[in-house]
Amino acid sequence: MHSLPYAANCSMLFTEEPLLARPAAAAAAGFDAVEFWWPWPDQPVPHDRQVDEFVEAIRASGVRLTGLNFFAGDLAGADCGVLSIPERAHQFRDNVEVTVGIGEQLGVRAFNALFGNRVDGASPAEQDELGLEMLTLAASAAGSIGATVLLEPVSGPKPYPIRTADDVARILDRVVLEGNARVGFLCDLFHLANNGDDLDSAITRHADRIAHVQIADWPGRGEPGSGELDLDRQLTAIQATGFDGHVALEYKPTGTTEDSLAWLSRARRSATSNSAQTGSH
């Protein structure tokens, strides 16, 4: 059994509560780490008051914010990132300073940059060049606070071009060639499985690039145990590569969030108690 700590993705879990109440709900459920998608999907640059309220909600709850998305548009709608879309890349550029600023206040070390869908009016090569420029910009800003920019594969019907671990590696290698190594692979096991990628092979081939991990079972994107993935074995393999970060629970709960957590004992929801419990293994 792996001993990696868990974090609750509060954009998919604890949605029974208003957004600013979710960190406290996660803490009450036993978690000491959370992550969020960009909290304001219609605002690349929110008002200072909104940022302050979000930061205070995290601090007051006592949890650690381990991951935060850059602005990516309306993920529940047509959007799936904006940084490679010519007419919208300025939204990403404007957002970088705000996102990294939140990260600096809260000690965030991982920022997810969703690449952007293919669009009419721009060739894939043009979009990839723009994406490379924006990722390099973001990685430079994140690097200034010792953080890393993440790139992840995404599944589903949207025309999102980053589908496999190899797709991620191809883009990351280009960013590194531009002179910025503050980028990493967000290894989302659900999306990889949903796209038909070989999870074992992806973990083995790209172990040195894994900087963050997210899980949901497949098919269905529900909690572990609701589908067919052997998530404990796969997480054990990831830990064996040297990864020691949090595993983010980014799934669609069956029933309430608390009901969906029956598979995970309360003791294992906290990094401190988890390490104490599994330290002898």
Provide an overview of this structure:
With 281 residues, the chain is α/β, with parallel strands linked by helices. The protein has a single domain, classed as Alpha-Beta Barrel (TIM Barrel), CATH 3.20.20.150. Helix content is 38%, strand content 13%. The protein is built from ten helices and eight strands. The chain has helices at residues 22-28, 48-61, 89-106, 124-143, 165-177, 189-194, 199-205, 231-240, 257-260, 271-278, and strands spanning 6-9, 33-36, 64-69, 110-112, 148-151, 183-188, 210-215, 247-249. The protein has an eight-stranded parallel β-barrel, surrounded by five helices. β4, α4 (124-143) and β5 form a beta-alpha-beta unit. The N and C termini lie close together (8 Å). Residues 276-281 have low confidence and may be disordered.
Please give a quick description of this structure:
The protein is built from 10 helices and 8 strands. The chain is α/β, with parallel strands linked by helices.
Keywords:
disordered C terminus; alpha/beta; globular; TIM Barrel; 281 residues; 10 helices
Helix content: 25-40%
Proportion of strand residues: 5-15%
What is the CATH architecture term? Answer: Alpha-Beta Barrel
Give a count of the beta strands, DSSP E runs of length 2 or more: 8
- Which class of secondary structure composition applies to the elements? alpha/beta
Classify the fold: give the CATH topology. TIM Barrel
Distance between the termini: 8 Å
Low-pLDDT ranges: 276-281
Q: How many distinct folded domains?
A: 1
SSE series? EHEHEHEHEHEHHEHEHH
Shape: globular
What is the overall number of helices?
10
Question: Radius of gyration, Cα only, in angstroms?
Answer: 18 Å
- Overall CATH class: Alpha Beta
Largest sheet: 8 strands, parallel, barrel
* Sheet with most strands: strand arrangement: 1-2-3-4-5-6-7-8
CATH superfamily: Divalent-metal-dependent TIM barrel enzymes
Mean pLDDT: 96
